[in-house]
Amino acid sequence: MVRNKWLLWGLFTWYLLLSGWTAYGPVDREFWAIASILPACLVVGLIAMHRWLPLSPLSYVLITVFLSLHTIGVHYTYAQVPIGAWMDQALHLGRNHFDRVVHFSFGFLLAYPMEEAFRLLAHARGWVLYYLPVMTVLGLSGLWEIIEFWVADAVHPELGITYLGSQGDIWDAQKDIAAAFYGALLCVMLLMVARSLHRPHTALQPQDVASESA
Prior knowledge:
By secondary structure, the chain is mostly helical.
């Protein structure tokens, strides 16, 4: 318990420091402020529900990694993240794909915490335990795209284009949702494989031994 407590404090401190760094001189301060609201609400919610819904240390690490990627993205605006520009130049991708990486990470990194939450809260079992996280990722990804549309429609056009970050791709929203979907699928598939490999083999019952001898 003490080790977990120090881990959680370490993750929280890391996120605060990273947020402080990204708050200093972002490429677009208004974009940074808008895009930082939901992650801040998530962190507050996790802290408020910690005693009621204590997730595993792995879940908190995965959530922190995703929030870190998102925080870096909003500092530069997703279309201008340096590592994405480097990937574009090295692999000739035709655009900055850092936003696509973060959408994939949303599904891949957060599907397990969602699975754990469904297991603890709803006592989900069997195939439903793997179905629910994937559907939740799909639903939240679609909701995020709708929120982006609302914000882009409500603010001035320059910020709206920056906030959407479509980079001229008319299918950007659909591809972002698909990336999150693929990430969630990969996560639950890895979970299923890992659990099947670690599942103990059922011992033979006496009647099974007798039938085999016969």
